[in-house]
Known about the structure:
- Helix content is about 15%, strand content about 30%.
- By secondary structure, it is α/β, with parallel strands linked by helices.
- A hairpin with a 2-residue loop joins strand 5 and strand 6.
- The chain is elongated and about 70 Å long.
Amino acid sequence: MKQKNSLKTIASILLSFVLIFAFSACSQNDDSSEKPDTSVDIEETINMVSGDYEFVGSSDNTVTIAKYIGKDINIEIPGEIDGKKVTAIGNVSKEKGAFEDRTKLVSVVIPDGVIEIQDNAFRGCTSLKTVRIPASVTSLGNYAFYNCPSLYAIYFKGNAPQVGNYVIEPVPYLDIYHYEGTEGWTNPWHDLSMSSYRESGEYYYEVNDDNTVTIIKYIGKGVDIVIPSEIDGMKVAALGNSSQSAGAFQDCTTLASVVISEGIIAILDNSFKGCTSLNTVTIPASVTIIWHAAFDDSPNLQSIYFEGGPPQTGNYLFDYRSPLTIYYHEDADGWTNSWYERPTKIY
């Protein structure tokens, strides 16, 4: 009899454990069933989409870009999305930047009205070369342009912004430009080389000691252009820049033909490097120097017309792939049947 009572007791205990375990499992299942609803709400809040952008709207009717989902490699970020002003380039999650790891991105123009470039915004954009930042930007977050090894020029339009940690990784040949007359800049700036510039029409430029101009950046969208001989009443002496890094027309991939005006003396380093659609160039007799890699990585360059004698040259002048022929005037001295290993013809 005692044995039967013991068995009943043990069975009761086991049944209690089973019931407790089953109740606990049901409770856990109830908790997990609520979690997807919460995450969906978060995703719906963050991932509002318009065109190539996911964004977050604020109560003040402004927008923070959360993620770029397009495929363009040269982009101008819009100043408005769905009629709301863009004031920040995120990260919304405090983890992933809006353009982080977009490894094919080459150039970026940030619109006026953006105030913040937040943490990691362009981190890991390994092909990024140039960035234009408007005067409205007052803050650069942590790692905003970190691990961007191809970056060679950033152009700031306004006063020096507040910066976080490791904002811009120092890389070879990177130059920082600030608009002349703006405040808060030093040279160097956060261990980065610094120069000032001015703007006129489609050109950024520097003023030389002799009151001539060096064009340092073409910001237009022309296909066939004539480079002016004067800017703001000053003679244009050179194309390129004083740092011998970023070329004035470098990576202008839509440029097809260029006429350089008389009076310009020097075509400096990398001036037309990476102009992948460039087909023809006319160079005046006043040009006496064409410096390193001036037309390198421009594989479709077919014709250069020289109006004077052969200039002094640097290294790696032309892209080895380009089907280039050099044309010169019959009465110009110094030309040979092959110049810089390219065929020559009289025109």
